[in-house]
Design a protein that fits this description.
The protein is α+β, with helices and mostly antiparallel strands. The protein folds into 2 domains: 144 residues, Beta-Lactamase, CATH 3.30.450.20; 154 residues. The protein contains 8 helices and 7 strands; from the N terminus they run ααβββαββββααααα.
Length: 304
């Protein structure tokens, strides 16, 4: 397994989970009266038989204790009966979220290779948790299930090319702003002996905008074109949005600071306008914090 495999799994995780959820929903009885192991186990084993590379299936009770052997391709493992799985992600996440989940890849105790476990909670007709059905699949097999089809690949390449074009266009704009700001230092009486306050602030504004735009373009190239994700708390377009809003907040904060100094020197009566900008920055920071909170919560629900 390489980093690219983890990236593929992360992108296709939702698709893989939807696939396993469909299998469970189609075959496993749920929220019915008189649920028992005898009703569930044959259908769980049918899922295993239909899946070419399934490593094994088993059933846990409401407390996370395994109540059936682990049924593998060629044998069953009766010594697994009675083992406590309550501390495993495939149990407590399925119980906590009350829906089908899949785990991150982890070393299998059966094969020693990386595996992914799909699990689904099974409730009685009154909503009481009765069992958790579990299914182990090799990591490579899950990658094939979540692999993008031809249409997905085409649009992925198209979007990547489009992001590259926009990113380099933004970099060109950033370079132009930077060049114009540097020229102001030599043409607008900014120097050691002659200091023009207006020209200095104009150059600072241009440099700040240039930095913010360049930072956004750099983020687009790294994350959307090269696929280099440095963080895992937020992914996809949300990460680019957070980076963009962060750049705007930094730029506005610098502009507010510049205005405070400018108005303090030239016209103190206008300091209130700088205060308005600072208030706007504070509102942006608060909004960004709320956006990150809900984005992380939504992403966790989708990837679980």
């Amino acid at each position: 397994m390489v980093a690219a495999d983890i990236e593929l799994f992360s992108r296709g995780r939702t698709k893989a989970r939807a696939y396993f959820c469909y299998l469970f929903e189609k075959n496993i009885p749920n929220r019915l009266p008189s649920l028992s192991e005898e009703m569930i186990l044959p259908r769980l084993r049918k899922i295993k038989a239909d899946l070419e590379n399934c490593e094994g299936v088993y059933l846990l009770d409401a407390h996370g204790v395994q109540v059936t052997p682990t049924y593998t391709e060629n044998k069953e493992i009766p010594e697994d009966v009675g083992k406590i799985r309550a501390n495993r992600a495939y149990y407590y996440r399925a119980v906590r979220e009350e829906r089908c989940t899949i785990t991150d890849p982890y070393p299998s105790l059966i094969t020693g290779t990386l595996t992914v476990t799909a699990s689904v909670p099974i409730f009685s007709e009154t909503g009481e948790l009765k069992y958790v059905a579990c299914l182990d699949m090799p990591f490579e097999a899950v990658l094939k299930i979540s692999h993008m089809n031809t249409k997905d690949v085409f649009f992925s390449k198209l979007f990547k090319f489009s992001y590259a074009v926009f990113a380099f266009a933004l970099m060109a704009v950033s370079v132009l702003l930077f060049t114009h700001a540097i020229q102001d230092f030599f043409t607008q009486k900014i120097g050691l002996h002659i200091l023009s306050i207006d020209a200095m602030f104009k150059a600072t504004i241009l440099l700040t905008l240039s930095l913010a735009i360049f930072d956004l373009a750099k983020t687009l190239v790294e994350e959307e074109v090269l696929g280099q994700h440095k963080e895992h708390n937020i992914s996809g377009p949300h990460k680019t949005m957070v980076k963009f809003l962060g750049s705007i907040i930094i730029a506005l904060s610098i502009e507010a600071l510049m205005l405070v100094f400018k108005f303090a020197l030239t016209d103190p009566n206008k300091l209130m306008y700088a205060i308005y900008i600072i208030g706007g920055v504070s509102l942006l920071i608060t909004s960004l914090a709320v956006y990150i909170k809900f984005t992380k919560s939504k992403q966790y629900r989708e990837e679980s």
